[in-house]
Write a structure and sequence with these properties.
four-stranded mixed β-sheet, CBS-domain, 12 strands, 3 domains, single chain
Length: about 375
């Protein structure tokens, strides 16, 4: 996963908060503070404390929504790979969701948890009343959790409702890839409808309408990416990273010059990517793109450790990992993957390797 704050783990899967999720907490806290100040139900200091607490609890609410997905998946014997929180909510990466029943139960768990949280916050809010600071803050938390529950059951990718609908479709005999296409289209349509509604509302309600507009834009754009990823995930089912990699007999020493490398390996005009070793550790990759960035007159002096593109932890995968791991990891600057087995480099995956593999995959 890319940069973020690790909050812990569940079933061995990391829980990572993107910095943007704290923007969500901040925005919600500010909204609560403004509301409390307008209602004049407490002092500025108490309003600030309640607003901070509300901001924290809205992030916790998003986390509990995702944890509900993880718990449901684990109870069905599925592997939870990671949970990530960000500005528009979060997502839980789960392996093995292939049956309609499992998809329905795992997808429905999140909105159900948010609905329960809405009730949990609403009851004390009702008892305290909206003429108290705590009551108004709790009402706001109840409302946002209800909104999360309702929004997530909209029938389109990448929302939970899209996955629920796909589960229903596949239970009725629709091919999983075809069902994915359909809910992706629905997700885009729902996004466009929200964009249109936002444009109308922005002239009447200002900021509230703008939020609807931005949400629609996010849904429409995310639906395409999520749908394509899901289709490829179905196509990659059963394959491992090893099936896509190109074997590399050895890593290139970072001390070699580009001229030495070309002479030794005889790459020619279509240089394939090789990992670069520096002091016994692979820290980068070198291929045609890196060679082209260096003037031929400097090939005799520029070393591989200078010309290479550095790689990070997400650019290294185990050979026996599921191939769809490629779709779930954030691509690093090299846009390539180094494959290892028991700590030893055994291969590299470039874009062309996936393209070459595609004809062997089940066709949509």
């Amino acid at each position: 996963m890319n940069a973020g704050i690790r909050l812990g783990s569940i079933y061995g899967a990391p829980i990572v908060a993107d910095v943007s999720v704290f923007v969500l907490g901040l925005l919600f806290g500010v909204a609560v503070f403004v509301d409390l100040q307008r209602a004049d139900v407490g002092s500025t200091g108490s309003d600030a404390v309640l607003s901070i607490g509300a901001g924290v609890l809205v992030v916790v609410s998003v986390l509990l929504h995702e944890l509900a997905h993880a718990v449901a998946a684990h109870r069905l014997g599925l592997q939870v790979r990671a949970i990530r929180l960000y500005l528009f909510g979060g997502y839980t990466i789960i392996d093995g969701v292939r049956t309609a029943r499992a998809e329905f139960r795992v997808s429905a768990a999140g909105p159900l948890a948010s609905a329960v949280l809405a009730g949990v916050f609403a009851l004390p809010a009702w008892l305290l009343g909206d003429d108290t600071g705590i009551g108004r803050a709790l009402f706001a938390l109840a409302a946002v959790n209800a909104l999360i529950a309702v929004f997530n059951v909209l029938p389109g990718f990448p929302l939970d409702g899209g996955r629920i609908l796909r589960g229903i479709m596949t239970a009725r005999g629709v091919d999983r890839v075809d069902a994915t296409r359909r809910v992706t289209t629905i997700g885009r349509v729902v996004g466009y409808v929200l964009i249109g509604a936002g444009l109308v509302l922005v002239f009447r309600f200002g900021v509230a309408g703008f939020i609807v507009l931005v949400t629609g834009w996010y849904l429409a754009s995310a639906a395409v990416a999520a749908g394509r990823r899901e289709q490829l995930s179905v196509a990659f089912d059963g394959l491992t990273v090893r099936d896509a990699m190109r074997e590399t007999p050895e890593a290139i020493s970072g001390r070699l010059t580009i001229s030495d490398i070309l002479d030794h390996y005889g790459f020619g005009s279509t240089l394939r990517t090789y990992p670069v070793d520096i002091d016994g550790r692979v820290t980068g990759v070198l291929g045609q793109a890196e060679i082209d960035a260096v003037s031929p007159s400097r090939w005799f002096s520029v070393r591989a450790n200078t010309a290479m593109t550095p790689i990070g932890p997400t650019d290294v995968l185990e050979a026996d990992e599921p191939l769809d791991t490629l779709l779930l990891r954030p691509a690093g600057p090299s846009r390539r993957v180094v494959v290892v087995e028991r700590g030893v480099v055994v291969g590299v995956i470039e874009g062309r390797d996936i393209v070459e593999l595609m004809p062997e995959l089940p066709q949509p």
